[in-house]
Amino acid sequence: MQSLFYFTGVNDYTMLETTYYDCPFGLLEIKGSGLGLHSVKKVEKAMYDYYDIPKPLKPVVKQLDEYFNRKRKDFKLKLDWGGNSDFYKSVWNELVQIPYGHTTSYLKIAEKIGNPKAVRAVGMANRNNPIAIIVPCHRVIASDGKLQGYFYGLDIKRQLLELENPDSFAQQGSLF
Question: Looking at 37, 122, 137, 140, which residue is catalytic?
Answer without folding.
Answer: 137
